[in-house]
Amino acid sequence: MELAIIIPLLAAAVQSGTPILYATLGEILTEKSGVLNLGVEGAMIVGALTGFIVSRSTGNPALGFLAAGCTGALLTAVHGVVCLWFQGNQVVSGLALTILGTGLANYLGTSYVGLSAPGFSPVELPILSSLPVLGPVFFNHDILVYLSYLIPPALWFFFSTTRFGLGLRAAGEYPAAATAAGLNVIGYRWFGICGGGFFMGLGGAYLSLAYTHMWTTNLTGGRGWIAVALVIFAFWRPGRAVLGAYLFGGIMALQLRLQASGTQLPSSILLMLPYGLTIFVLVLSSWRKKVSEEPGALGVNVEPVD
C-alpha cells in the first residue's frame, strides 16, 4: 500500500522536476562561462509561449520544442548585448530580462489562455518500464523526460574533457589568463549565454507541451528563480542539478497532492513549500561555500580585445 502511494509521487517528482532541470542546466552553462543571468524566468516563459504557439499552428510539438529553445537563446542574447558589448551590470540586466520576458509572454499569450495544443505523451520504454519501482518512476514518461536524462552526463563530458568546454570554463575562471593563451573569451561567453538560453527555453516549452498541454498566464510560476537557486545548491555540477531538480519537483508534486486530498493546511502554506525549500537550500549552500565550485570570474565583465 505504501508503494502504491510513494511510486506515483516519485514519478510525479521526475515529471515536475524536468522543466526545472532543463533551466538549471542552462544556467550552469551560462555561469560556467562567467556570466550571471537572472533572466531564467523570462527565458522560460517566452519559450513556453513560443513552443505552444508553434505547436498549435503547425501541429508539430517537436518543432514547437525546438522553436522554444531558439526563442530562449534569442531573448538571452539581449543579455549578451548588454553585458558583453556595453559592459552593463549583469544583475540589473538579468532582472530586466525576467520582467521583459514575463510581460511580453503574458501580453502576447492573452488570446491563447485556456487553449490547448498538441504535445508530448508518455511513452513506455521496452524492458526498462517493466523494472520494479524504477520502471514506473523513471521509464514511463514522455520523450522530453528521457532526453533530460542524457543532457547532464553530456554536459559533464563537455566541461571535463572537450577542448571547447575547458576553454569555456577558463573564460569563466580566469578570463585574463585565457585571453593571454589566445582564447576568445567573449566568444565563449556568447556561447554560454545563448546555449544556456536555449536550455531555458526548452524548460519552458516542457511546461506548455508536456506538463499541461495548454497555455495559462504565468505558466512558469517562479520555476526560473528556483533554477537559479539550484545552480548554487548543485555547486555548478550537472549531476547534482538532477538531484536538486527532482527534490524540488517532489515538493511541488506533494503540495498539489495535499491540496487535492483536502488537507486542512491553508493553501497558501502549501504553495510556500517549494520556495521555503529554496531559501533553505541557499542557506545550506552558503554554509558549505568552502566546497563550492563557483566560477572565479562569475559576474565580472570582460572588455573585448581589439
UniProtKB/TrEMBL annotation:
Keyword Membrane found: yes
Major place of residence: membrane
A family per Pfam: BPD_transp_2
Membrane topology: Multi-pass membrane protein
Signal peptide start and end residues: none
Keyword Transferase: no
Compartment annotation: Cell membrane
Keywords per UniProt: Cell membrane, Membrane, Transmembrane, Transmembrane helix
Record's GO cellular component terms: plasma membrane
UniProt GO molecular function: transmembrane transporter activity
Entry protein name: ABC transporter permease
